[in-house]
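Hi U.,

Before I forget, here's the chain from the pilot set. I'm dumping it here mostly so it's searchable later in email.
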Amino acid sequence: MKSSIKTLFVFSCVYVITAASSFAQLIYTFDEFGNSSGPSSAPPISPGVLQPDPSGGVSGPVLVYTLPLPILTGDVVLTEPGNPSTGGQNSDIVRFWNPTGINLTQIIFYSDVSATDPADSPADTGLPAQLISPIFIPEVGPEGNNGATYIPPAGAPGSTLAGVVIQYNIISDVPEPGTVALAILAGGTVLLSMKRRQTA
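Structure:
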């Protein structure tokens, strides 16, 4: 009886710690194709839609997500790996747009386009010429499957006035469908061969 009470106590403590940490930090993920996800117990992030740029950063439609939270306005600039002295080339800009401070923030995803890297996603609209309170962070991962994780410090673009910690998982490049299928096939082959070895 005593061991079951101890086990129940341990599970209760783990549950309380896990619940407290999940409420302390919200995690939102979004990519250059309009896909998004967020915690089920918090204000959701909408799927991205093409619409006229609410900030006037570029002419023409841009990929915009909506987050029903008051987030500070500003830009997070993703840089490609390059010369350490220059920090690499800017490849994407995520603009948090909430000039009125109300409980509605728009997240604008801009991605660069060029002759060598033509547009292949809704975010590929080019980069705005003017930056707003920019923070620069490097992309992580191989070209074609990279992005960045951004946890804004207090007062930085994307932070909340309420002091809630938010983590943004920004997926810059999504693997081509053929690459994903190849990776799944390779993983399945490895699992199948491991199962055959275990059976033998």
